[in-house]
Amino acid sequence: MNIPIPWFVQDVIVVAITLIVVVFIIKKSKHPVQALLEGFCFVFLYAGIFENFAVIMGWYVYGRSLLMFIAVPLSVPLIEMDVFIVGLWMLEKVRVPDWCKPFIMGLLGMLQDFSLDPLATHQVYTVDTVTSGRWTWILTPGAVNIYGIPVYNFPGWMLIMLYATIFVILGRRWFKRSGYKASVGNGYPFASLGLALLAMMSPVSNALLWLVGFQGSVAEWVMLSFHLAFPTVLLIMFWRGKMNQPISIRQDLPIFAVPVVFHVSDIIFTIAGGFIEVLWLVVLASCLHVALLVIVCVASQRARRTIPVQPAEAFLFEP
Question: For the whole model, what pTM was predicted?
C-alpha cells in the first residue's frame, strides 16, 4: 500500500510511544494486568469502536494506514489511550478530589487535540486514487469550524476522556473493595470502558457538545469555552499545587514525555508541511499543555521539601 511518508512516520512515533508506555506499566505497575487491560479496552472496546461509529455516521473519514482497526488507523485510538494512561498516572500524584479528575483529564485531551487535529486535516495526499487528509471532517453547510474542524470536535475529546475516567475510577474502587480479587480485576476494565462507550453515544453527549439541537451554531463555541474554562477553575480552586506524591522526571518519565513528544512531532510536521496558517494554534496548544506540566513539576519539587507529603494509594505506579 502506498502510504504517504509523513503519515507513516507519525504512525511509527505513536506505536513507539505506546510501547514505551506499556514497558513502564509492566515494570512499575502495582497491578500490571489490570492496567494493560484498561489500555486494551480503551483502544478496542471504547475509542476504536466509537471512531468507527463516527466514520459510519459520516462525520469524518480517515486516510489509510499500515495498521488499521476496521476503517480507523490504529494510531488514532492509541494516541487517545496514551494520553489517557499518562494523564491518570499524573492525577494519582496531584491532590484533587476524584470528581474533579474526569474534567481535568478532558482538558488534557483537548490540549493534545488542539495541536493534533489542525495538522492532520491539512496533511492531504492522494492514496490509491483517493485524496484525503490524514483525517478529514465532512462539514455540513454553515457549520462553525476551526480550520475545517467542527468546533464540537474539541469538546468531543473532553467527553472521551471524561467518561473513561469516571468509569475506570469506579472500576478501580470496585477492584479495591473486592480485596483485589482477580476476577473483579480482570472484569472491571471491560465493564468500565463498555459503560463509557454507552455514555459516549447517549443523549448526554449531545447536551455537552452543542446543548441538544443546536449543532453547527454558536452553541458549540459556548460549550467549547465551558469545557476549557471549567477544568481550569477546578485546578485553581481544588488543586493549588498540592501533591499526593512527588513526581520524578526519571521515574515518571511518560507523564511528561508522551504529551511533549506528540506536541513536538505536531509542530515539526506542521512546519515541514508548510501549514503556516495553523502553526500558531499548534504552538499555542503545545505551549499551554507544556506550561501545565511544568507547573505540576514545580509543585512536585516543592512537595519534596514538604514534610510529610500525604501519600494516596497509587493504583498504577509506586512513588
Answer: 0.91
